[in-house]
Structure formats: structure tokens, C-alpha cells
Design goal:
The structure is a single chain. This protein has 128 residues and is of the alpha/beta class. It is built from three helices and seven strands, in the order βαββαβαβββ. The strands form two sheets. The chain has a four-stranded mixed beta sheet, with helices on one face. Strands 1-3-2 form a three-stranded mixed beta sheet. The longest helix has 13 residues.
């Protein structure tokens, strides 16, 4: 078997808040996703993003212990300006900016915003 990422799953406390956040990043969930216990969206390249409520996880794994920071994602932006603009848009919408945009030593414009459940979402673009 060859390892290939097929699905990125995130456990969320509030489906409506999570769907709203990821829609702002451009993820297209179906209508009514805010009220579902499990939703999926295609991300391109055959990869899907799945959001599951804590109740969904507890339904098949009763010993599961919740918490924050249960997943991290990185989102490639087209330019450094887009990193800055998306960061400002999300922070302006009330989401927490963990790392303000900066020029990283590894050659990227980089920033981190936390989703409603405390998961880090990195925004990055190549410099130059």
C-alpha cells in the first residue's frame, strides 16, 4: 500500500462556527452543512476535508477525550499580499490570529489563524 492522504478530519465543538470559518477560506460545503454532525468537502487533488462534531466521535469512541488543537492545516496562498489580506479578513471577522504575517527564514510569507476549536490554520506563500 502506498501512503496517500485522502481525507483530513477535524473534530469540532460547533459545526456552524467551523463551517463558517472554512467557507471563508474557500471550502465549499453543501447547503445546510451547519446543522449536520458530519460534513465533507472536496479540496482538490482527490483530498477531502471532513468535519465531525464531538458527539459524532463519542458515538463510536466513548472513551475519546476532547480538547483544543486537534488538527492543523496549511493553506497555500497565491502571494504574500494574499497571506496578509486573508489574515486580516479572518481576524477582522473575530477569529484569533496566532502568528501575525511575517517573512519566514525558509522563504515564505507565513501566518497562523486559529479556527473556532483552536486548530492552527497556517497561511503561506512563497516570497519573491
Amino acid at each position: 500500500m502506498t501512503f496517500q492522504i485522502d481525507l483530513v478530519g477535524i473534530v469540532v465543538a460547533d459545526m456552524g462556527a467551523a463551517v463558517g470559518f472554512y467557507r471563508r477560506l474557500g471550502v465549499e460545503f453543501g447547503e445546510g452543512a451547519e446543522g449536520e454532525p458530519h460534513v465533507e468537502a472536496a479540496l482538490g487533488g482527490g483530498v477531502r476535508l471532513a468535519l465531525d462534531t464531538e458527539g459524532t466521535i463519542l458515538s463510536f469512541h466513548p472513551e475519546w477525550k476532547g480538547g483544543t488543537g486537534r488538527m492543523g492545516l496549511a493553506c497555500r496562498c497565491e502571494s504574500a499580499a494574499e497571506v496578509d489580506a486573508k489574515f486580516e479578513e479572518l481576524v477582522g471577522a473575530g477569529y484569533r490570529g496566532e502568528l501575525k504575517p511575517f517573512d519566514a527564514f525558509w522563504g515564505q510569507r507565513y501566518a497562523t489563524v486559529l479556527d473556532p476549536d483552536g486548530n492552527g490554520v497556517d497561511l503561506y506563500a512563497a516570497l519573491g
